[in-house]
Amino acid sequence: MKDGADPFEAIKATFFQECDELLADLEGGLLAIESGSGDTETVNAVFRAVHSIKGGAGAFGLDDLVSFAHVFETLLDEIRAGTKPADDPTVKTLLRAADLLSDHVSAARGDGERVDEERSNGLVAELEALTHGETVPGGDADRGGADDEDDFGFSPIAFSGLDAPALPPTVEAAPGWTVQFKPAGRMYAHANETALLLRELGRLGTLGVTIDVSELPSLDALDPETGYLTWRCELETTVDEKSVREVFDFVETDCPVTIAPLGAAGRATVNPPPAAAPADLDIAALLAAARSAAEPAPTVRPSPATPVAAPAPVLAKAVVPAAPAQSQGAQTVTIRVDLERVDRLINVVGELVIQQAMLSQRVSESGVGRSSGVAAGLEDLELLTRDIQDSVMAIRAQPVKSVFQRMPRLVREVAEMTGKRVRLVTAGEDTEVDKTVVERLAEPITHMIRNAVDHGLETPEARVAAGKPEEGTVRLAALHRSGRIVIEISDDGKGINRERVRSIAVSKGLIPEDAALTDDEVDNLIFLPGFSTADAVSDISGRGVGMDVVKRSIHSLGGRISITSTPGKGSTFTLSLPLTLAVLDGMVVTAAEQTLVAPLPAIVESLTPRAEDVQYVGGHDPVIMFRETFVPLIDVALALGYRTDPMVPSEGVAVVVETEAGARAALLFDAIQGQRQVVIKSLETNYQQIEGVAAATILGDGRVALILDIDAIVTSARRRPNRPEFKLAS
Question: The pTM is what?
């Protein structure tokens, strides 16, 4: 925690971070249920997500959030209890409720507008109707958890005359815990329920529950907003105390709890027998009051002339069946760390890598032999530095799932606004990438998903007329390729109408009317600022802002974006980004006395060109024979403008590289210095973007070297006009 920071606000910020994770789990679980792949554990996970949000919100006094989450939770509890089916209308309502719950969280956090009360009340009414319409005869109001207590099978002990019966006989000792808690009235005001706490305890093992109502006053003195009951639970289980205490995480401040081992006597440890109850005491009425959510039992009021004595301790016994055995294996333990601290650690490790490289170079320049102890120690230091670097980068690695999980809601909203039926398919959600990259992926992916639904997919009627199913499909996938992460957004819509795109670009003055463009160049016109194919401005599109923002965002990450479109079949947008913005394994090379770094994952092989292996297409485009096929030969120094005359191929070194599209080319350098791990420094942030250059780095001798953008060099070399003539070496 930073100096001077408010501890309460820090805890609250942590709660909202957890809410983001819980909301993602909630939506993912509901989508699994909607697709028919949700099992009992999925339903339980969805319920726990809403319950955890409600409990935390209650602790911070977020009443609107608590109230909505309570109604949401009640319906989910009906579903997991099996009294309400998770049919299609119900799940669709739950998905809309999840969206509104997210809005309530945003409003409570202060980064969103206050939720419209009419909208919230309308959805609350729908949830309550679904909860009670089919399961409660007569449309009763919120039952406040009656089903929860029925699940526990509470059965009051029958009294004979004035004496209470003896408690059950002793049983053999069993491992477990004695849990005693007394809920305060404010716990119920925060929309928490004792029955839910007992149910969660019951999932940990075999649970015996004793209710002490000795503090319950006479009915005329009873305050319905005060807690009088003390609950004593004997839990036979093998879980540790921490797991038991986690059940009370969100209520412990409103519900003092003590946890102690069952002891050698196990379940045999009991309280002294309760005192006798007066003959005119209405036991059924007291039990009904103690179990506020249960159906009231018939009561017989005592005679007005007979005073009612204060109730003696009355015990009711409940036995909760043991939940299915849970895995007691090792669990992953995680901690929350401020991202700023991780960034500082990564910067320090980056400096360590640079210093290690400098030290190695100075020792090498001093003439120390490779077999000396100093050289051996430096090799060990290099290996250790790499291990540290890899470990630190693993801390920042994060699955793209956090971004992908936001998209189903977006697809549903845009589909409803456009009147289209859309199914989102995701793949590769567990693909890991640097956290900084993940965070900056959300905006461009959002833009492209909206465009895929709004512009790419046809209306249901048009799809049927074209022989396609009414429901369109948008696919979002992530994968690793050549040391980079590739994100693909595709649809099975109508594809890009190139004639229309071209005519719009001409009408907006973005290109001259007589411009000769290839299909790929026409497709890329949609990335120009101000370009839009929408006929009218709407809440979704039409303002000419979107795809140009996407391209800038991707380029700022050192990435690229490409389009593949087939008219009538759909389009695919491919984003290619570096896995990390911190380090890179590269090959250090020289070109025209300039030191450069070529990313190692893109390199296939290096070779020395022979004059007979080099041929020229059209007299000026050199190609080189590589494994029985010709590949383009690109003079990198010439491509980057370091010199104006091409070098003789046989005097240099050719490095065969493979682009992300799978195309191969040979890059011609003066020499190769060696392989090295380098720290990436953004060139665009400190200078400006340069075509063919992805970033920069600091070498061991303190010089700055440029990191090559392989795909950009290959692409620009192919389309460069007025190329100079190449001549064979004499």
Answer: 0.57
